[in-house]
Amino acid sequence: MSTNQQELARRLKARHIMMIALGGAIGAGMFKGSSTSISLAGPGVVFAYLLGGLILFFVMQGLAEMAVRRPQARTFRELIEPILGRFAGHVVGWMYWLDWVLVMAAETAASAMFLQYWFPNIPLWLLSLIVSIVITVINLFQVNVYGETEYWLAGIKIAVLILFILLGGTLLFTGYGVHPPAGFHNVTAQGGFFPHGIQGVAASMLIVMFSFGGTEMIGMTLGETEHPEQVIPRAARGVIARILLFYILPILVIVSLVPWNQLGTNESPFVTVFQAVGIPYVGSIMNFVMLTAVLSATNTGMYAASRMLYTQALEGQAPRIFARLSNRKVPVTALLASTSFLYIGVVIAFFAKGHTFDYLMVIPGYSVLTVWIFLAWAHIRSRKEGFEAKGYYVKGFPYTSWFALLSLIVILVGIIITSPVAGTLVSLLAYLLVLVSYWFTRRSRREKRDTLEKTFVP
């Protein structure tokens, strides 16, 4: 092992950053969970995705500006702490780490379920174990190996979405089988564009915002990106445009081809459309796509969790051993500690019999919203007297960041009101544990300082 004085290697290229963010935001929720958001808002869900994308665009703009002003930052945690203080850095760091280790465990179990489609005689826990080992090995190599793996995993999802957009868009105007061209008749035929009114759009916003989770991964790559001052602003702008493109166009195609009230919530709307068109092997195709989606999320989670734990250790808010780097400049100790949650997922998969995803996905929704709120607030506080508007900077400041912050707070309140009480209590317990841990780390730092002062007093 090397000492913690070594820096992370800057081996991630612009194309890696773009695909990492896209891969984090376009997951299995897009291919399967979009049916729930459509059922809540009808065709008006397109507006919900536009609004959600606008909010996240303003957040990412602020992140990019702060990254340009602080090029030595390794993760977005080191953008937040100098502005909002150690407490904010501690909370963001640990909640984001907890977010991804839970997502990793859940997605690993989900990947085992998709693999069991082809290997029905192999138990879920064994398939989860195999996936866990493979993902761990990939992340032990140099960071560009992770970047390249994520690039191709995300590429498969995006290729399917492009194919779906082209195929579905063509069928809208040519028809299929005995069905005449649908055009955009179905968008307004079943109760109008907003069949459930503004309340339906508001209800869908909760799911829509969670769907965008992972966009902030741009801020986790700061310490390993080549020329971050150039790449990060470009990636922040480009990734939101692409996410909106790959969310809005497919959903617009879906609600145009098939009446929104005929889409079930238990089946992927993509499967419904493909089956209606008559494409063979739809089940196998979509199973493969969703498998790549959850593997991509697991791979991203491994990267995010290990880098955040590494940064926490450097800042003295986690044991110092997690700040050690391997000869490949990978925080291997932090990585292996975070990996342990994958194997906890294996154990849960053994007992939960396929319900692990539901059991674990309680805290991450609150965690990622917390990160976005802190990023927006940090950007508002980052502008000081004497700020020079040169290079990359947000031209709509402070209105854009205030709009994002207030919108996210409203969404957070909506989540608290509409979420099951048990899930909110579990999340509250996680926050309390993080707060208690901050008190212990603060006390430990004070005791070390007092010891040093006594040592050097003549």
Automatic annotation (TrEMBL):
Query: Which residue spans traverse the membrane?
Result: 12-31, 37-60, 125-146, 158-178, 198-218, 239-258, 278-298, 330-351, 357-378, 399-417, 423-441
| Subcellular localization(s) per the UniProt record | Membrane
Instruction: Report the coiled-coil segments.
Output: none
Query: Which Pfam family name is an example for this entry?
Result: AA_permease
Q: Which domain of life is it from?
A: Bacteria
Residue ranges constituting the Amino acid permease/ SLC12A domain according to the UniProt record: 16-447
Q: Which UniProt keywords apply?
A: Amino-acid transport, Membrane, Transmembrane, Transmembrane helix, Transport
- Transport as UniProt keyword: yes
Family annotation (InterPro entries):
AA-permease/SLC12A_dom, Amino_acid_permease_CS
List the PROSITE patterns: AMINO_ACID_PERMEASE_1
The UniProt entry, under PANTHER family, shows:
GABA PERMEASE, GAMMA-AMINOBUTYRIC ACID PERMEASE
The protein in question is named Amino acid permease YvbW
Name the gene that codes for it.
yvbW_1
